[in-house]
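check these tokens.
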Amino acid sequence: MSILNTFQQQFHPMLPRPNHDERSRQEFAKSLRGYIQSQILPGLMPLYRKIMPDTSKRPTRAEVRAAMEKQPYFQFYASLNRVAQELMWHSVIDTIERDLPRMEAEAERLEGTIGSLKLNPEMEVPRYVTEVDIHCMPGGYAAEFDRKGIAAGALYDRGVYLYSMGYGGPFNDDKGRSVCNYIKRNFRGFEPKRILDMGCTMGFSTLPYKELFPAAEVWGIDVAAPLVRYAHLRAAGLGVEIHFAQMNAEKTDFPDEHFDLVVSHILLHETSGKALPRVMKECFRLLRSGGYMIHADLPPFDRMDPLNQFILDNETYYNNEPFWSAMRDMDLVALAKEAGFDPESVRFDTAPMAIREFSKATGYDQGKTEQIAKRDFKAGEFAPGGWEVLIARKP
């Protein structure tokens, strides 16, 4: 049994509950993604070596694309990957439409029981969120489909688990848990009193910070009302006290120097070239002296070989991630320094994936945690080795 099938998603009151046939379809969608990643995608490496044999110079990803897009094998891979993505979302929609009455009843039961929720009906959601269905998720993050405004959140909750093929862990919280483990190991004695998670979506990665720092006041913000509404209900259903608010990370409503730790988890590539510098400056404004900013994402392109750049670039071309590639071309270290962070503190590092460390320690996967990571080619939304973290400290 591999890690892909060891960690099934942990149900909570707000998670849509598939029946037998729906679960089978969803498991097929997840397994199809796993097959594409482990069996089809690695075949791009020998193809790349065959059609671009000149090793005297490093090709650009545009040159790689011009050559690879003509190849039937790549066309098959890209087409199958897109079909799998759309199948994944549609397999979950069936469950939501059937299970929505139960979920609405749970929402009414859980509202206001623990934590808090602050919505802003007057806030204008940025175009970089509303103009496309990010990740091909039908309707996008901010769409209101139902009476309680929870369907989009439920779709994201179940869909992301399938998309990550189990690598998010039972609670989809691997990114947050990985960063928390990194903090425990590297910031000894650091005890933040207030923590902010920017672009929190469902609050997956927000909850581990309350577990690591139970005395802290933990906030999660996002521009999409359906996401933070669902995040509040999800956290309440799990019995975790988190405060959620509909705010834009470019300009929040919090006072200056309000937090000791500001984090995000794959937020940066969901913004825009104009928004990202403003997010960095807002992080600086919100942090107290000595506080830390940590953004978890995948590495910049200059830290990857041309083929990995090209494959990740496909998220922009085929998966409605318009800023995915542009963000990785930006100098994030320079942006952090320009925002005012201590130049000596700004750096990239790797936070090992918590789920893989847990799997190794417990033997849950019967010694096969390296099954996918050992393959010759490594690329995709998940990070086989760990999450790249941008770290900066306010003087």
